[in-house]
Amino acid sequence: MSVDTVSLTGWGRTAPTTAVRFRPRGDEEAAAVVRGRGPRGVIARGLGRSPGDAAQNAGGSVLDLSGLARIGGVDATAGVVRCDAGVSLERLLRVLLPLGWLPPVLPGTGRVTVGGAIASDLPGLDHRRAGSFARHVSALELLTADGEVRTVLPGTTLFDATAGGLGLTGVVLGATLRLRRVTTGLMAVSTERAGDLDDLLARLTAGGDRLPYASAWVDLMARGRATGRGVLTRGEHATPDMRPAHAGRTRLSRRPGAAPGRSLLPGLPPLPGGLLGPAAALCNEVRYRGSPRARTGELRPVPAFFHASDALPDVRPLYGRGGLVRYRFTVGYGQEETLHRVVRRIAARRSPAVRAVLQRFGAADPGLLSFAAPGWSLELDLPAALPGLARFLDGVDEEVAAAGGRVCLAKDSRMRPETAAAMYPRLAEFRELRARLDPTGAFRSDLSRRLGL
Description:
The protein is an alpha+beta fold. It has helices at about 25-35, 90-95, 115-120, 125-130, 155-160, 195-205, 275-290, 300-305, 335-350, 390-400, 415-425, 425-435, 445-450; strands at about 1-10, 15-25, 40-45, 60-65, 70-75, 80-85, 100, 135-145, 150, 170-180, 180, 185-195, 215-220, 230-235, 295-300, 325-330, 355-360, 375-385, 405. An 8-stranded antiparallel β-sheet has the order 15-12-14-13-17-18-16-19.
């Protein structure tokens, strides 16, 4: 096992803190770290894709599980796989797709580990049908505060606390997943433009679940009658009869990172000093005008549909030295006016928001701190160095909380503890369970201390 002292951040590169990092080669070494933890505790870390401070532990220990990445066995008949927590969804997709199966839920990047997907209870593009990631876990191996490994099954309180529990109930070492059957490696994709937010919401609603995967990019810099305009993308798994006659036999397998990337600002060099307003507005204008008014039946490889951003260069330097804040919230159906107000506030502020994703969620997941709930979810990235950003987002928090919504803990880097308590009604139950299972505070993170989890 390798050990070093490092400065760590989340993917957003904000608030770096120093910890002792352990890289175990097996479950026993991971257990030894938990048993020998110091007074600041330990937290598990995968590929570091959490935008905030959920996988940091200032002055304590960080258990880097990226080396525990074995795929133990695939039952291609039953559609089940057992794998270590450090296996990335990108690699899992690469292994499973040639066998005619997919991971149960695919978020917008494949560079997330199975353990991280469980700890965050990640929702995918088809939450209305599939729910979040942990709903498809039939068993998990959890390293608890006493240094023992337990098999935890769905329907138990410990499972519900671990799903979305941000690594604070223990270290997920492995899991058994139920998979999704596919017959080709292609997606049939529909794309259409919407002129404003009302139009966008109407199109998302009218589509129903005929095409199960749906999300929309929203232009958060457009104002006036164009406020909230966007581009809606929907997809379904293509069947063999959908392939063009000249295409021959389409391979199920395609490396996720191989899809060609499209530059958001073609022909322009990287922007110094962050994505400033005029450049971001130009970028959004190019993206909106360059998207088709309406197109159906486009065939894309599965990785290119789900993980298109993984094929692009790292965009974080464009947000400046201060890094980026990823803000994701959800409000229920019937609270569309709250969504409108938030979008108008962001547009009026002229914040340089290039990445903004709108989705619909279905039934709530059973995790005590799971994020997804029936309603609308909006996720956006903003430069952390924007003047007044903290105060502005505090105000948005209040608006979301007043509407009964919530901000995603797994992506958070700046929320106040009282706000988190107001948004997550089962937080007291989660705290009580943690106090009972882990009375000495073995599992801690910068996020858990900041929010009092």
